[in-house]
Design brief:
Blueprint (H helix, E strand, L loop, with lengths): L27 E6 L6 H12 L3 H14 L1 E7 L1 H12 L15 E6 L2
Antiparallel strand pairs: 1-2, 1-3
Helix pairs in contact: 1-2
Length: 112
Amino acid sequence: MVRMTTRPTPSRETPTRERTDVELERLYHLILLDDDQHTYDYVIEMLASIFGYATEKAFALARMVDSQGRVILETASRDRCERHQSRIHAYGADPRIPTSKGSMSAIVDEAF
């Protein structure tokens, strides 16, 4: 004997999503700017100290900032980027270069 089973009929109503007024948090880039007052070793040490980046990643970022004039270090909330920007600006001069007068520069820019 063959048993027939009935399946529920799919609803013809279109599911609706509840609208919320919650917006996603905007993201920002922290961008390191190139200069001639800091060595690769300085950049590598700074990135390891501030971000915990491994030597290989820090070296790759140092090469990019040197060749392109700027490099995105992270994409995160504005607050996080500004905290890291402050740490970059407070890191100090490169002791390997006698004419180095201060820290590297970094800017925070909205990611689109």
